[in-house]
Amino acid sequence: MKAVVGLGNPGVFYQGTRHNFGFIALDYLADILGVRIAEDRGFYLAAETRMEGEEVVLVKPVTFMNLSGRAVADVLADYSISTEDLIVLHDDVDIELGRVRIKVNGGAGGHKGVLSVIEEIGTEDFTRIRLGLRGRRIKGEDLSSFVLSPFAPEELSLVEQALPKVKEAVELIISCGVAKAMSIFNRRDKGGRDA
Questions:
Q1: Burial of 11 (0-12, 13-18, 19+ CB in 10 A)
Q2: Is 153 exposed, middle or buried (0-12, 13-18, 19+ CB in 10 A)?
Q3: What is the 8-class DSSP label of residue 115?
Q4: What is the rounded distance in angstroms from the CA atom of residue 167 to the CA atom of residue 22?
Q5: Digit-coded pLDDT (tens) for 52-90
Q6: What is the 3-state secondary structure (H, E, C) of 37-77?
Q7: Which of 110, 126, 84 is nearest to 118 (CA)?
Q8: How far apart are CA 125 and CA 84, in angstroms?
Q9: Does domain 2-188 have CATH number 2.60.120.10?
Q10: pLDDT digits (tens, 9 = 90+) for 18-55
Q11: Known catalytic membership, residue 19
Q12: Stated pTM of the model
């Protein structure tokens, strides 16, 4: 079984904000797969489904972003899932909005949700699907203000373009393994500084 975890902040106040891109992508996957992420498992909500012939649990932490690792650690324990079978969806300000990248290992890159996951599970050895945010940020704008603000109306088409890419990335990781998925997926969209 694989776990696909979307990182975000729970609550109405944070809906539609850039920092909830992981939740937005996870909800898109759930809609496509015809499941509802609603089973209350303490620190997270879950829905079991199948992708590419494999059992998958879709997970939405109910903790705040900087405590996401608690939920992820519980998921791995509850479902007996290894870190190699963990896929985390998260926003990334170093990638252009609309672009999606697969990454394995490495630090948190300043992302407090990813840092929490690393600290709680004790390793950087897991797969991340990085959802680009860079774009409309005003020069000098505080980073936390930027990520906690809603997507601008003119950005929504780029958000929508990214969502099928997330589904494709997850499917490739499951069907081909992460190394091959990275070489296929990341090579397709090389333009820009984030390739």
A1: exposed
A2: exposed
A3: H
A4: 12
A5: 999 999 999 999 999 999 999 999 999 999 999 999 999
A6: CCEECCCEEEEEEEECCEEEEEEEECCCHHHHHHHHHHHHH
A7: 126
A8: 7
A9: no
A10: 889 999 999 999 999 999 999 999 999 999 999 999 99
A11: yes
A12: 0.92
Q: Which two tokens stand for residue 134?
A: 């860079």
Instruction: Output the six-digit token pair for 4.
Output: 């696909």
Which residue, chain included where needed, has tokens 């697969």? 102
What are 113's two structure tokens? 């949700």
Q: What does the DSSP 8-state code read for residue 182?
A: H
- What tokens appear for 185 in the block? 């997926």
Tokens of 114: 């990813």
Catalytic residue among 2, 18, 19, 165: 19
Q: Where are the domains of the chain?
A: 2-188
Residue 152's identity, in one-letter code, is A
